[in-house]
Amino acid sequence: MTDFFWLIPFFPLVSAILFVIFGRRFPKKYVSFQACFAVLASFMLAAISFFSLLNAGPSHSLLEKNLFSWIDAGSFKVNLSFQFDSLTAVMVLVVSLVAFLIHVYSIGYMSEDKSYTRYFTYLNLFVFSMLVLVMASNLVLMFVGWEGVGLCSYLLIGFWFEKHSAANAGKKAFIVNRIGDAGFLIGLLFIFVHVGSTEFSAINEAVLGGVLTPALATLIGILLFIGATGKSAQLPLYIWLPDAMEGPTPVSALIHAATMVTAGVYMVARMNLLYSMSLTASNIIAVVGGLTALFAATMALTQNDIKRILAYSTISQLGYMFIGCGVGAYAAGIFHLYTHAFFKSLLFLAAGSVIHALSGELNVQKMGGLRKYLPRTYYPFLIGAIAIAGIPFFSGFFSKDAILTHAFAQGQYIVWAMGILGAVMTAFYMFRLIFLTFHGKERLEPDVKKHIHESPPIMTIPLAILAFFSIIAGYIGLPAVVGKKYNWFGHFLDPVILSSHEAHISMGTEWFLILISVAVSIAGIFIAYIFYIRKTQIPSTLVKKFPFIYKLLYNKYYVDEAYNAVFVNPMIRGSEIIYDDFDLKIIDGAVNGSAKTAAWSGKLLSRFQTGFLKDYALIFLLGAILVIGFLLF
Amino acid sequence: MNIPIISIITFLPLACALLLIFIPKDKENTLRTIAFIITLLTFVISLTLYFNFDSSTADPQFVEKASWIGYGINYHVGIDGISLFMVLLTTFLMPIVLLSSWSYIKNRVKEYLIFMLILQTGMIGVFVSFNLFLFYVFWEAMLIPMYFLIGVWGGKRRIYATVKFVLFTMFGSLLMLVAIFFLYSIFYKATGTYSFNIFDFQNMILNPNIQMWLFLAFGIAFAIKVPMFPFHTWLPDAHVEAPTGGSFILAAVLIKMGTYGFLRFAMPMFPDALHKALPYLAVLCLIGIIYGGLMALIQKDVKALVAYSSVSHMGLIMLAVFALNIEAMEGAIYQMLNHGLSTGALFMCVGILYERSHTRLIKDFGGVSKQMPVFSAFFMIVMLSSVGLPGLNGFIGEILCIFGIFKSNHLLAILAVSTIILSAAYLLWMFQRVMQGPITNKNILSFKDLNRREIIQFIPIIVMMFWMGIFPNTFLHKIDASVTHLLNQIKKREVIFAQAKNQNKPVIYDEGEEELQ
User: Fold this and answer.
1) Fewest Cβ atoms closer than 10 Å to its Cβ: which of A326, A336, B330, B400?
2) Nearest CB to B472: which of A71, A75, A174?
3) For the whole model, what pTM was predicted?
């Protein structure tokens, strides 16, 4: 069976192709079945491949399959080849499992949509692209998946393209991602020219063999990371992700929370040998990650759109993953990616269930007290919130703690502090969301209240399953204080990830760090409780007291506006000026001018054409004299 | 094989044009059907070129020679890896162009078809000629039908656009004509034989000054055709005014002749001049890439937008050609095919919108996708192909070009990468404003989705886009030997030239691989 591991991505692809060709004739029920089954098939094959990898032992830590030579021109040789190692296994399992649950959920969520088949076509296509991204054995093929998920993201954000805002958000996502992709592409070119191949094995060999100088490694590392800031929504290219919430909510859960946006983290972890060569590049990643984690968390504090709160939270959590990678704790970064996939998709799907129940209401200020109407949504949501807040014994605690401990151990105290500060805010805004939505006074619109209903089981069962994983997922990677051998997750990734020269910190320090993160989480939740349950007048008093800060946060630091003012508008206005004043007036003016001159001189010359023989004879004579004179002297 | 297959492909359309003369002009559908079938037949015959092409050699294949006027003016045609796909591109697209004109052209159908067919003969002739005189005849012959296609079936400012197009092209052509005769006389002086054979000319090593003048003469003619910045202003006007079929063929095939001209004539004949001009040419190409992209961004007319996108894309192709390495040059040739497919198809999309709305202004559209879902899907794929999305054809060409450019100059490549951002910006923004959003213009509510003929127009192009994106080696391997040979030749000439410099002779004839006739 393991010989066929490379088929994993192709089930969803075949399904998508069938939808494109026959989609109109398929009944709705069959569409649901085929779409889900294709992803389930991928998951099953992934699980089989995973277990055989596990049983094969450390000597066979990699499955490879070269399908055919894809591009072959001069020294530019790229194969269509896949690989399956422990890192890929984690990614493939997470992607296919979460994707499967979200496909199932979508059956309920999208049941009334007119473009049902189109939706599942895009969703299947996305799963295919994502699987290609994580299974590619070279950077070029990875780039194919990278752009492919970007395309699907574009299509799905703009799924309801009749809405102006949705079409706009889709376009914005694609273009901003392309800016990152340009960086990625240049990094890829440097690797290709200096290593002679983009196969990951060849790149690793080149790093170990000293082919790449440290300066070059830094340059390549930064360029590739620019690509990651686009795809994984980090500073300064995160601006597309909040707008991406225009897409259907299951899409936000799958693409813009659990899978696609983590591609950048996966890429950095995949290239960990290269990054380990460059302290500069690693530090940049850690600092950008820390800043993003903090910055995005502050923006989540004041938002009222339920999905946008979660979007900023995603940006912030991705920042944590990059902190992990930046301080050399790649396994911890990937560990957080894995736990985050469960609890964040859970939060989004639960939010979707709320939105579904409230006929599309997104504003948390118009919710409240929903606990009693939507119990099967409330409890999973609560579990998700506890997990992300970092309360012990839930998955998010283990992974976030692993990252922050490593950051501290590596001496990145500022980054660690940013992470801790972000963690307080995370706990606060998540429980602000919980309290505003499910607790307190009902602030529902009367119309909405009439139609309120709990979601069908096809939506709540995936919630329950994800809630289950949000609790238990962390137990395969216990912190070192419990005992090193219990970090099974870390050991599993050993063959792929260079075990970093771990700076050791004492047991005491580590316990102390854990205590701090637990304390800040509880503090955050407690403040939210005071603000939104106990003394609900506090938030409005604060707004009145600090109107400037509130406005700044509420308007997301005016970053979008600043980008428009600094980059977009000058480019468009400048191009218009160049077009009007240069292209039309100068270049084209010169052309038309010379045409006019030609016409004018033609008229002038035509005067010599008098039609009288004597005039011609005169001119002929003059010409002859000139020629003879020229030849003689 | 004794069948003169190249001649058949070249002259079959012309023969068909002659046949159409004898068919009454009111039998429009008969005329259209005959023309379509003949172009389709031409394509099927041209496929034998692909299947019988020997990809292991750079030598000209399917060569036909016959004496014609004498004094070196011979009928000498054939193909190699560089021209093979140019010919196939022309024969592949021509039936599609005729289909796309089926209901678009309503008056003077007969004349339209005749001009189109003559045009096809001219285009194929340009790509297969190995005799410079013959090449020039085809090159000029092409201009006449194009003149009428824009001038008769064009839009409101068609006369202005036609005159501009013709003046621009004639300006370059005349320079080239002078240069051709100059070469001819030099060759005669050096060897005592008359020849227009391009391989003879390629074996001459010319004095650097002469080279520079000749290179400029050829180069300007080709740069206008490409068009390279700053010779591009005829293109938006010609495209905006031309009928869909005219724009299609102009973008898909005609402007490739500029690039082809550089590859076939200007570069191998004048390697020293090329060498000196390279930095300037590279800068012009780079300006073209960015400038074309920025101009495309702000166009109000969809056709003008696509025209400026051509300036940008052709800039990248030319930059890759001038990178002078195998990856870039194969990428450039591949990208010429891609650009032919995707830009041609973009014009087809605009034509389909124009037929329904009689406008091309972006602001008059919005929300068309809802009304025309099938068209929307095709338009999207075509757009993504032009944007260079992996999996489709554009990506392969683009990444090879950029890789090759990167190999010769890092900075140029890094700046050229901006094209992937710009192309996404102008095309996606246009797509959003035209196809997405709410329907604001009530006329759009009456739009009908594609009919069967229109779907058939798209299918082959879409299939090719995927095929070329997934199996590029089916093309690259055929191009390989010829490109390697071309590059070696340019390099070899440089070496010989360096040696010859010391001997201080104006012209040296190198008795290389090719024999004199």
Assistant:
1) B400
2) A71
3) 0.92
Instruction: Please judge whether B327 and A178 are an interchain contact, meaning their C-beta atoms are less than 8 angstroms apart.
Output: no
Q: Look at residue A581 in the predicted model and tell me its pLDDT.
A: 86
Closest Cα in chain A, distance from residue B68 (Å): 35
pLDDT in tens, B299-325: 999 999 999 999 999 999 999 999 999
Residue B1: pLDDT over 80: no
* Best of B164, B232, B421 to mutate (most A CBs within 10 Å, chain A): B421
Q: Which of B233, B325, B435 faces A587 most closely, judged by CB atoms?
A: B233
Residues 179-208 of A with CB under 8 A from B: 179, 181-182, 185-186, 189, 192-193
Q: Per the CB < 8 Å rule, is B418 touching A181?
A: no
Among A296-300, A455-459, B90-94, B166-170, the least confident range: B166-170
Q: How many C-beta atoms surround the C-beta of residue A587 within 10 A?
A: 15
> DSSP assignment of B74-110, as one string?
EEEEEE-HHHHHHHHHHHHHHHHHHHHTTTT--SSHH
Candidate from B233, B370, B389 with C-beta closest to A588 = B233
* E strand or H helix at B390: none
Per-residue pLDDT band at B512 (split at 50, 70, 90): very low
Instruction: Confirm if A258 and A209 have CB atoms less than 8 A apart.
Output: no
B231-257 pLDDT, tens digit per residue, is 998 999 999 999 999 999 999 999 999
Residues A89-113 pLDDT 10s: 999 999 999 999 999 999 999 998 8
Over A44-97, what HEC string results? HHHHHHHHHHHHHCHHHCCEEEEEEEEEEECCEEEEEEEEECHHHHHHHHHHHH
**Partner B contacted by A3 (CB < 8 A):** no
Identify whether the C-beta of residue A305 lies closer than 8 Å to the C-beta of residue A271: no
β partners of residue A79:
A69
**Contact state of B438 with A175 under an 8 Å Cβ cutoff:** no
Contact B250, B149 (CB under 8 A): no
In degrees and rounded to multiples of 5, residue B507 shows phi and psi of -135, 135
Instruction: Give the pLDDT of residue B516.
Output: 34
From B481's Cα to the closest Cα of chain A, the distance in A is 11
Q: Is the pLDDT of residue B508 over 70?
A: no
Of B297, B400, B413, the CB nearest to A575: B297
Contact across the interface for B413 and A578, Cβ inside 8 Å: no
Q: How many residues does chain B have?
A: 517
Using an 8 Å Cβ cutoff, are B301 and B53 in contact?
Answer: no
Q: How far is CA A260 from CA A92, A181, A251, A473, A494, in A?
A: 12, 14, 10, 20, 24
In the numeric block, the tokens 């195998």 are attached to: B326
Residues in chain A: 633
Mean pLDDT across the stretch B141-167?
A: 88
